[in-house]
Amino acid sequence: MADPGATLLARLSSVVGAGNVITAAADVAPYLVDWRGRYRGAALAVVRPASTAEVSSVVSACAHAGVPIVPQGGNTGLCGGGTPHATGNEVVLSLARMNRVRAVDADNATLTAEAGVTLAGVQAAANDAGLAFPLSLASEGSCTIGGNLSTNAGGTAVLRYGNARDLVLGVEVVLADGSVLDLARSLRKDNTGYDLKQLFVGAEGTLGILTAAVLKLYAAPRTRVTALAAVASVGDAVALARHVKQALGDRLVGFELMSDVALGLSRKHHPGTPDPLPGHPWYALVQADDSADDPSLPDRVEAMLAFAIENGFARDATVARSGAQAAALWGARENISEGQRREGPNLKHDISLPVSSIPAFLDDARDRLAAAFPGVRFVVFGHLGDGNLHYNLSAPAGTADEAFIAPANLERAQRIVHDLVVACGGSISAEHGIGQLKRDELERTKAPLELAIMRRIKAALDPAGILNPGKIL
Ligand code: FAD
Ligand code: ZN
Questions:
Q1: Whether residue 81 has its Cβ less than 6 Å from ligand 1
Q2: Which 3 state secondary structure label does DSSP give 93?
């Protein structure tokens, strides 16, 4: 009798070409480990379709064979959602070859891209049309729009433009039986019943495979001002955020918080990064954009920060006066994750809180974690303007990193952090998703009725459970 695995691989080869069914261990390896190196899996093969029709045939062949599928875009996800399990009975479906921008409609301010276009590629195509796609992540050179929508990515411009969910008008999805659901409409208004496209946003590949999306474009910024402020406490940073929101209104795009420890790791592992305001415990990075030419905006931002210093909720500030200075300020922020990775393994929490509760949360969490893990290093940064903190812990100096991130420690730290988050009315995942990392914590912290509805939706769309099983639920 024919080996069912071999039969499936032959079928997949006939769909995408033998060269796009990868089985050689060395070639498959990069798809089997996540960006952080926390999750490692195995797979029957990596399949790389180039069109929606090919994705449809691949999914239908896998469905017939009862072989689960793990979709993967740029593999920059931080929760193990795109990593197959160790069983080796899954197929990784890479969208990387679906990398065409299908259309840009400048009058409608929309762009239609295939799922495997990188975020940077989408931004560039929008810029070429004199417009902008505002989603902005440090991983934008590698992550894909399909991955961004599947994780409902956030990033540094959420304050002004919202999450990935807010930036999508339509999607094209291949369902679990291989059928193609065409929701790729480019309408800003469409009240014809349930908003099905949003089901697939943030679903981490568990409900369907996104093959294309219609995205909203915005006026390109003609004026951009970046400033760094040093503050004495997170309470002062919250007061500063409120002041800045009032002063800049819609022009405020991003308000990022960074601890001195987080910036220190960024600088340590990226030598040459400037340190314009040394010696403070916390920093806020502010970005303001205007679609009009406004030469007065830098001076107005400077006056706003001078007011904050006079009134005691900022200690010092600097406004970038060139593109290079602005890039250096943003570089220090964006290199924190990479700096932390190079420093060694760590425990990460991507949490969302009402902005007003953040200072008290940080005090409580610090006290409880310092008692549980004496000497633990707090690497705290994130998108304070929208209440999203990257609340990360590095091993105490001089301890073995691997022991620090052992499952028992991860679980203990997650419990402490997430219990406090829930008590503050927050969320255990702000922008990275659930994947494998937070599946048990989701089960523990989400209301049973919400979980039950999620399971019913999963069962309705993927009754055989072949789409990214064991992720989220
Ligand atoms: P992958 O990692 O390949 O996949 C992510 C999930 O989506 C998986 O569950 C996968 O199965 C699923 N998936 C991928 N493509 C599809 C598809 N076409 N159809 C269905 N399911 C699919 N995230 C933020 O939100 N904000 C940040 O500021 C941010 N900064 C980052 C900085 C760095 C340095 C790094 C490494 C990551 C950062 N991330 C951030 C996380 C990551 O970049 C995002 O989650 C991104 O959206 C993932 O896109 P991807 O293409 O790499 O997806
Ligand atoms: Zn982030």
A1: yes
A2: strand
Amino acid identity, position 138: A
What is the 3-class SS of 120-151, one letter each residue? HHHHHHHHHCCEECCCECCCCCCCEHHHHHHC
Which range marks the domain in which residue 60 is found? Answer: 4-94
Ligand nearest the Cα atom of residue 38: 1
Give the ligand at the shortest distance from the Cα of 383.
Answer: 2
Q: Looking at the domain assignment, is residue 468 inside a domain? A: no
Going from the Cα of 392 to the center of ligand 2, the distance in angstroms, rounded, reads: 12
Torsion angle defined by CA atoms of residues 366, 369, 371 and 374, in that order, rounded to the nearest 10 degrees: -100
CATH of the domain at 60: 3.30.43.10
What percent of the chain has pLDDT above 70? 100
The total of structural domains in the chain comes to: 4
In this structure, are 47 and 62 located in the same domain?
A: yes
Mutate to test the pocket of ligand 1, among 51, 76, 91, 258 (most ligand atoms within 8 A of CB): 76
Task: Give the tens place of pLDDT for each residue, 353-386.
Answer: 999 999 999 999 999 999 999 999 999 999 999 9
Question: Does ligand 1 come within 6 angstroms of the Cβ of 339?
Answer: no
* Domain containing residue 150: CATH number: 3.30.465.10
pLDDT at 3: 82
Q: How many CB atoms lie within 10 A of CB 99?
A: 16
Please give the angle made by the CA atoms of 159, 116 and 457, to the nearest 5 degrees: 70
Q: How many CB atoms lie within 10 A of CB 413?
A: 23
86-95, 241-250, 271-280, 391-400, range with the lowest pLDDT: 391-400
Give the end of a domain, one of 94, 125, 160.
94
352: helix, strand or coil: strand
CA of 94 to the centre of ligand 1 (A): 13
118 within some domain: yes
Q: 254 CB less than 6 Å from ligand 1?
A: no
Q: Which ligand places an atom closest to the C-alpha of 152?
A: 1
Over 60: is that where the pLDDT of 217 sits? Answer: yes
Mean pLDDT computed over every residue of the chain: 96
469 lies in some domain: no
Please identify, among 184, 204, 219, the residue that sits at the C-terminal boundary of a domain.
219
For residue 150 and ligand 1, the question of a CB distance below 6 A is answered with: yes
Interval between CA 85 and ligand 2 midpoint (Å): 26
Least confident of 43-57, 162-176, 332-346, 407-421: 332-346
Distance from the CA of 156 to the center of ligand 2, in angstroms?
7
Residue whose Cα lies nearest atom 21 of ligand 1: it is 205
Q: What per-residue confidence (pLDDT) applies to 398?
A: 76
Name beta bridge partners: 290. 223
* CB of 115 closer than 6 angstroms to any ligand 1 atom: yes
